[in-house]
Amino acid sequence: MIDDEQKPKNDDDVISRIHKMCEDASDYWADNYDRAQEDRRFVTIDDEQWPESDRKARKAAGIPTLTFNVLRTYCRQQINSARLNRQQIKAEPVDDVADPKVAKIFNGLIRDTEISSGADNAYDAAVEGVVYGGFGAIRVHVDYVSPDSFQQEPKILTIHNPDSVYFDPLSKELDGSDARFVILESWVSKDEIAEQYGEDAVSNFDESQAKDTSSSSWYNYADKAVRIAEVFELQRNSADLYLLIDGTTTFDKPDDDTLIQNKRTSYKEVCWWYKVSGTKVLEDREFIVPMLPIVPVYGDVTWDGETRYVYSMIHFARDPQRLYNFWKSSEAQQIVEGLRKQYLVSDQASQDLECWDNPNDHQVLRYNSVSDEDGTPLPPPQQLPSLSALSGILNAADGAKQGIEEILNMQPAAMGQNVNNQSGRAIGLLQQRADVSFFHITDNLNKSLAQLGRILIGIYQKAYSVPMVKRITGEDNKAERVPLNTPAPPDETDGVIDGMLNNLTVGRYDIRMSTGPSYISQRQENKQALTELLQFVPQIGQAAPDLLVKAFDDGNMLEDIVERIKRSLNPVLTQEGEGDPQVEAVMQQYQQQMQELQAALQQSQAQLNDKNAELQIKFDIEKLKSETTLQVAQINNVAKAQLEELKGAIELILQQMQPPAEWMNVDLKDGQPPEPIPEQITPNPAAEQGFLMPDEQQMIEQQMLEQQAQQQNFAPDDGQIGIDAQNMAVNEQNPELDGIQGINRE
């Protein structure tokens, strides 16, 4: 609260100061408000698109003054687009004291306030003010819930006349957060104010001038009305801020100075509300939070140095609209003139015939067919061809309309019209370009609603500071009741701050905006997406039938169906069995079974690891045996092939050379066969690559046995008798081969 000595000393000082604020603000915004009023009337009031002088002159001449209000169509397109895509105010925790669950409660309180106070009307009126005139405003009002209650709650009110709101001229932020004051003016009946606040509230109202049409800045004598100004002003008072040893801060100095860790000069800020007439302060009190409860919504704002220009959506399209009206009116005039027939007739032929004074009003035209002085018959009247420039007028009218589209950057595709020779992607880009052209309207509205959300959170933290139960509304418009600022149960952790459940009075919360389709549009889109998803994932209907039915709920009798399906399901699946002993017992049983399964799984895994190790050793042994057998078979197969080749070569040599007879009696040296001729072993690719079949391997082993038998009973054949046995090389069994074969035989 403001100290009494810091408030103005008397009403005269307050009135003088407030009147000065109103005059300064009115002078500052006069040009912009005049421009806004012209634009608003141009697009919303009949006959305002023609100047009064032109309309009277054309009417006297019989020339039509038609109005084809194309701009209003474009304006409604933008306004209805904003209605379809509602902005949503969402609170988010900022510091370590704030809680996400409490932020959700703030969101539910904001939605409940919007629904209960009809905030959509206030938002729509603000958007219309921006589109038509460049200005809009939204007001937050705090009042008692009933005449017999001390509980206060906020309401969002509609401001239908944005020209009645005057913001601080020094404010430059688009959401008005830097304004120090705001003024809301209205004209009220003089008798009503006198009855409610006394005759001294209108003491300067001169009854003698009641018949006069003139008006002063605070009195309208013609309507017997007085001007009432509501002023919200932020006022700062210097104060000492103390930092205590426990980390808390306070403006109240503690009795024990040892508790003070630091001190600095700061300030306290309050918002003071005045309601004044021309002569009296009618009411004044402190607003619940130190924030201005009226939020501006701006359109197209342009700064030229320190001069601010605010434009509506249609301001720069007014001239093309006038030109379009002119050419369409000219087109109508040409068509009317084309329907009027003109005739060429001589004076003698039309003499004394009234029908020729206005031939278009008569169905039958008569003429005098007498002869002239020379006896020549007079020619009949001739109809003249109509002179029309209708094609040129049509082209000019189309050009004017195209000028409107180009200035607004809203092509026919953006308005939902069918455009030939354009792909769907091209049409989508045109629509997107139109949305981008006027995105500043949506963005400015987001900024203003974010400031509105901060004001509401501040009000909730002040007004809802005691234990209570309040209604909140979810995103699906379903309401529920939640306890606020109550002692937390022992097992509760979510939303608990300093031992209090859903404590709204502590923590800092900020606002984030999200723009999207309304809940009805979202539900329709979700239904379509869910229907398509069920075609590919039919298991959804088995896993969550109650949620599926709820998703298609249109608010009729499907709530009963949902409840009936829930009763047939396991309570664990619906996650609504918390606190139920039966459900807890089921959960404990499931947990015990899970632990037993995990222990059995670990034991099986250990046994499996031992078994895998044993199998790996056996696999390695068998692999080594197989490789050894293949290598022996390769060596024996190659040796036998080379031996057969050597025998064939010797036989060929013996056929060509006959040894001497004396050689026939030569004995073998030491009774041993000659040493074999060394041969180069040729590897067998197929054997090395492991391509031998089982039958081939058995054949190779059989050949190895036969070869061993031949080597043990070796003797030269008949062709070798008489040849020098020392020069004959015969294959001898390799000792290493015997060892390998010995392993193979075992």
UniProtKB/TrEMBL annotation:
The UniProt keyword set, sorted, is:
Coiled coil
Annotated region (Disordered), positions in chain: 706-746
> Which InterPro entries does the entry link to?
P22_portal
Coiled-coil positions: 583-656
Domain of life according to the entry: Bacteria
Q: What is this protein called?
A: Portal protein p19
